[in-house]
Amino acid sequence: MFKEAKCLFILIFIFYLINFTSNDNILIYILFGGLYMKKKKVKKLILVFVLTLMIITSNFYIYANDTKGANEILIQILNNADLSKINYLQGINIKENEYQEIQKFTLELVNNCKNDEEKMNTIFKWVHENVKYGNANNDPYEVFINRVAVCQGYANLYTVMMDILNIPTILIQGNTYFGAHAWCLTNIKDNWILIDPTNYIIRYDVKDYDAVYTNSYFTPTYIHSILLEDDNYGYTYYDGVAIIENKTNNKIVTIPDEIDGLQITTFCTSTLNNNTEELNLNKNIKNIINNAQNDNVLKKIAIDDNNENYSDYNNILYSKDYSYIVFIPNYIEKVELKPIEILQKGTLSNLEYIDKIVISEGTKEIQDYCFEKLESLKEVYIPDSVISIGKDAFYNIGSDFTIYTNTDSIAHKYALENNIKF
After folding, report:
1. Residue 70, strand partner residues
2. Of the candidates 365, 356, 370, 368, the residue with the CA atom closest to the CA atom of residue 402
3. Rounded to 5 degrees, what are φ and ψ at 321?
4. Are 377 and 354 spatial neighbours (Cβ–Cβ below 8 Å)?
5. pLDDT digit of tens for each residue in the chain (422 aa)?
6. How far apart are CA 217 and CA 199, in angstroms?
7. Helix (H, G, I), strand (E, B) or coil at 328
8. Which secondary structure element, helix H or strand E, spans residue 333, and what is its range?
9. Which of 3, 44, 311, 373 has its CA 20 to 30 A from that of 394?
């Protein structure tokens, strides 16, 4: 038993060796060594260990490939950006008097530094050593005063201090292999350097993806700052090249295919303004980020037929195979749904102008809270194909609507049981 435990300890040590050296061949050596072991128990232990490790590391490699691709796109955006025009504090909550207090301290802290790289290292080290990790207010001034934060607070304060020194620094929200995280990219002499003040990690050449991201897997998700601009729109990184600002007052908005040779793959609904009534999405769109905070007047939406991810039908955006709804315009009044087999919770919610819903033949189930907070709803047409309706399928709508369906259908029975007009 002692020998088996000792063997397991050695194997665990080898696992860490693999993880930190990324030497795939070690696995092969262990596997073949295990096959030639004379003791069956040890052989079995080694084989199980290797097979398990292969499954685990395969997930690491998949994640690493996603990470590499994401960072390649981000660096391409940054290489095309005019660094002098970026608002690096966009999305960071700080007042002028708070900024000035941090500014006075920062300038004193780097007083003896000879160049930007020394300043960067001084700020990086100070933030890491003087802020304690813990749940607290992550606004930069609160972190500066209280010296407690999670990763977002570390990155916020570091970004503000670098902004004070006029050293370009991008705040990034994203993921590592172990969960959500926040870190920064700092530009020194046209070289982007990865800075993680929370964990005291620094990587000097983000173009060397394999060297930078091995064993850390920093995958960016979102950057608040607008990085690229043209006459009509502002762009950033949001799971790809994303359009996040609309400078026009046009009623019809057509999303371009690219900016500076980079394909636009993400559309953020925050781009919609109070004049946008019709939206046309390009063939490259892969992500729809529903982050609109304004009461937009969008009525119509369409997407290029060659788009491989989404389809449109009667001004509703669906997955390519129409299996689920992706986005519905805020100002739409009449909704005719494609025959989705199961209408799930939240299918239509918080759409105050909808007055008519037509559910197509082929839909079988309407789940609880499928239709919620539809203040103007008057008519709902339900086909005979529907065989199940959740008790709370129509929730927080009121009683001033009518279900249209055939007598003796499931929908008819539902209307009678719930005192809904039929």
Report:
1. none
2. 356
3. -95, 10
4. yes
5. 545 545 544 544 454 444 444 444 444 444 445 444 455 555 565 555 555 554 444 444 444 445 667 888 998 999 999 999 999 999 999 999 999 999 999 999 999 999 999 999 999 999 999 999 999 999 999 999 999 999 999 999 999 999 999 999 999 999 887 789 999 999 999 999 999 999 998 887 666 555 445 455 788 999 999 999 999 999 999 999 999 999 999 999 999 999 999 999 999 998 888 889 999 999 999 999 988 765 788 999 999 999 999 999 999 999 999 999 999 998 999 999 999 999 999 999 988 899 999 999 999 999 999 999 998 999 999 999 999 999 999 998 877 899 999 998 999 999 999 888 88
6. 13
7. coil
8. none
9. 311
Task: Round to whole Å and give the CA distance between 224 and 88.
Answer: 8
Cα–Cα distance measured from residue 304 to residue 69, given in angstroms and rounded to the nearest whole number:
25
φ, ψ at 203 (rounded to 5°)? -130, 125
Contact 191, 210 (CB under 8 A): no
What length does the chain have?
422
Edge-to-edge strands, sheet with 365-366: 342-343, 365-366, 388-389
- Closest by alpha carbon to 288, among 274, 306, 301, 277? 301
Contact 244, 218 (CB under 8 A): no
> The whole model's pTM is what?
0.79
- Among residues 413, 365, 357, which one has the least CA distance to residue 389? 365
Question: For 360, which DSSP code?
Answer: P
Is 332 within 8 Å of 299 (Cβ atoms)?
yes
What does the alpha-carbon distance between residue 53 and residue 18 come to, in Å, rounded to a whole number? 10
What would the DSSP string read from start to end of 371-419? Answer: EE--TT--EEE--TT--EE-TTSEES--S--EEE--TTSHHHHHHHHTT
